[in-house]
Amino acid sequence: MKKAAVIVLALVCLALVVAYVDGRDKARPDAPVDVEVLRRDFQVEINVVGELDAAQSHMLSSEIQGTDGKIIYLIEDGTRVKKGDTLVRLDPLPYQTQVEGLQAEVAELKAAVEAARQMMAFEENQVEQEIANAEYNLNVATLELRQFEEGDGPLKISMLQEERQKAKLELQRYEAFYNDLLQLKKEGFDNKSEISAAEEKVAVLREQHKEANSRFESYRKHVYPALLESARAKKQNALLMLEQTRQGGVHKVAKAQATLGQIAGKVAAKEAGLDQARVELEKTEIKAPLDGIVIHYETFRDGEKRKPREGDSVFMGQPILYLPDISKMIVKTRVREVDLFKLSLGQKGVVRVDAYPDTTFNGDLTFIGALATSEAPGSGQEKYFQVIFTVAGGDPRLRPGMTCRVSIIAQAVKQAVVVPTPAVFSGEGGEFCYVRTGWGAYAKRGITTGAHNEDVVQVVAGLEPGERVSLVPPQAD
Question: What's the CATH code of the domain at 124?
Fold first, then answer.
């Protein structure tokens, strides 16, 4: 009996001790809370907040030269449009007036061109006729010279020479007859009437022979050379007139061509101006180059920062609106400098848009900036790098400017020894955990950590799965 009573008493004491210790631990507000060291998969994610934008967008502005553009129609902000839809109309009146004025000037100059062309044709025809007449005169002069040199001149000389020869022969015949009569007179046969008549005849023939000889010599020595020189001069003059006519014709035609070319040049210049005016007129209507959503461009206008509206004046190159291509969207955001080493191009991620919290979109990291920025440069604040995340596929619900949250999967760790992030402490000796060694007892143990996210830390060395570590530093009694 005594032995049984001792055993019961011992059990009661043990129960009291356990109850005391357990009650003591629960009563302490700083009692350690420990968890089990596990082996499992986890992902290292970088969570950032960004803004949706189109991967490509077309900025549309006035292309009209100068500052005469005035908006008379502007499509509403946020309107979905198709390629070719009219987005902006600028006041076309100044350009229509310019086009009409230039059209009238071009028509007038074209009429002047036609008149100049007809004048040139007339001058060319006139010159051709004048040259033909001059060539005819030259041919006539050449033929007359040849005819005189080879025909009329020598023939005339021959005729005069023959006339002189006949006069000479006739004179010689009558002189012989007259001499015969004188001889008969000496012989006693005196025929005074015949001698007198023969003497008169001889005198007349001598005069005729003298005149014939004079005519021959005069023609041969004076008339023929003069007529020959005159014929040659006439030919030379005709040749000179032909050359002058040709040169004068060239000058006349060239002058007419120059006049035509000058007017044609004016026509070309006016037509170029007309073409430019027509282009400017076409530019008064700005159309969508692709499907998209219209977003009015906000900038300083009339001393205030605002979006454009009808009635505003615009100058060449001043943005009016832009048309994002919403078929491919990106997220523009930034990451902390301390997280930069975790990123590489091509990493996958998930996008959640605040407007559609129940929908997720996949994508890839496609750009990492090269320069760091801070909220206030030079202030020593934390620095950031710009990154761009491209959303896979397209969704008509996505709009530029929407706020979204991106979870970039920087690393996927397989079957690693992990502990919760609060279980890892750091001090002078490095990182460590408080490992449970017994009931309510913990020992400080150094560890080597690897990858980590917001929830867990990989323990490369120092812990084994199944051990328990404290989430808060234990306090000594």
Answer: 1.10.287
Task: Determine the pLDDT at residue 103.
Answer: 92
From 237, 258, 281, the end of a domain falls on 281
Is 367 within the bounds of a domain?
no
Residues of the domain holding 216: 96-281
| Count of structural domains within the chain | 2
For the beta carbon of residue 155, count every other beta carbon within 10 angstroms.
12
Rg for the chain (alpha carbons), in Å?
64
Matching residue, tokens 């010159």 = 127
Is residue 298, in this structure, part of any structural domain at all?
Answer: no
Give 136 or 57, the one with higher predicted confidence. 136
Q: Is residue 224 part of a domain?
A: yes
Number of other CB atoms surrounding residue 319 within 10 Å: 15
**Sign of torsion over alpha carbons 363, 369, 372, 377:** negative
Choosing from 281, 310, 344, the residue where a domain stops is 281
| Length reported for the chain | 477
Facing residues of 452 across strands?
457
Three-class SS string for 141-191?
HHHHHHHHHHHHHHHHHHHHHHHHHHHHHHHHHHHHHHHHHHHHHHCCCCC
Distance, CA of 351 to CA of 354 (rounded, Å): 10
CA-CA distance, 346 to 49, in Å (whole number)?
19
How far is the C-alpha of 469 from the C-alpha of 449, rounded, in Å? Answer: 15
pLDDT band at residue 398 under the 50/70/90 scheme: confident
pLDDT digits (tens, 9 = 90+) for 340-375: 888 889 888 899 999 998 889 999 999 998 888 887
Residues 277 and 419 grouped into a single domain: no
Name, in order, each residue with C-beta under 8 angstroms of 230's C-beta and a sequence gap of 6 or more. Answer: none
Cβ neighbors of 87 (< 8 A, separation 6 or more) are: 60, 74, 75, 81, 286, 287, 288, 294, 321, 323
- Confidence grade of residue 13 (pLDDT, cut at 50, 70, 90): very low
For range 182-187, the mean pLDDT: 82
Please write the tens of the pLDDT for every residue from 91-115: 999 889 989 999 999 999 999 999 9
